[in-house]
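Researcher: Last one for today. Full complex below.
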Amino acid sequence: MSAIFAVDLGATWLRTALISPDGRRIDRKARVPTPENAADAARSIEAAWRHAGCAGAVALATAPELDGDGVVLRWPNRRNYEGAALLTDAIRRLARLALVDDATAAALSAHDFDGAADEITVCLSIGSGIGGGAVIAGRPLMGAHHAAMDVGHVPVPSAVGLRCACGRDGCLQAVASGRALRRQYGYHDLFADPAAESALRLATAALAEALAILQAMFDPERVVIAGGLGLSPLFDRIAAELKRSGVALAIAPHRHGDDAALVGAAIGLARGLAPRASTSAAMSPPAARGDPRCKISSPSGYQPGRVSTKAASGA
Ligand SMILES: [Zn+2]
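Model: Here's the assembly. Have a good evening.
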């Protein structure tokens, strides 16, 4: 199988890359601030896909919930995306597609498929919003409505009385997400602001409460933390809080860092573990090799031996 074009759409960043099916090689990494609306995001995704040579397989990891056609069903953090499509006709026509929740994708890329596939991996992704994912015996936990592990909306004691973007009170996300913290303290470095200390303490306590729930429910072999806020100095605070509160749980930062969802989306598609999207592409589409708009900037396109971690600014 050739390289997979992976997309990670979060509330803050839209990331793209070409990734080998085993998730080990990453090329043509690019990142742009998340566009204001879905039409701009769809155009940006198609431009990056063309720049990467119009790969015949496209894997999307997204914060919002999508339907099988890549239309945004629900995104409390970005309501104006709801009802609009993230995939252009060209991609739907020319590529094989898989769609997966971003935190589930991060759980897939944290799971040890080669060594200990039967184990349980749980991932908590803490960014603008908070998501969760689990891989159990080599399969992602999806749920009846593809909404399993919606950890951001689990009620926790430290969030009692706080209104969440989903409309309910007391969700983890209402106290511990980047969005909740930024609403109170703006975009500067929270960890250098003494005024943010009490909010950070409350967020840390809430995250430890949620992790204790996950520990009790899954007894997992591996719990990893992903997301921009999760991989910030907040990580050490959470680990210390778990220890202080006597929760027998060791957490680890995600091994793929900011690439966690991108890599997991590609692994999900390659292993047939991510739901397929409706597509008009043939089983083995030739992509658009004859299309002059597919700008492969090196003669042979994706090169398996080559690793580039340089983030492009455009795409
Ligand atoms: Zn909620």
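The pocket of zinc ion is lined by residues 153, 164, 166, 168, 171, 173 (CB under 6 Å). Helices lie at 38-51, 89-94, 102-110, 173-176, 178-185, 197-218, 234-244, 260-270.
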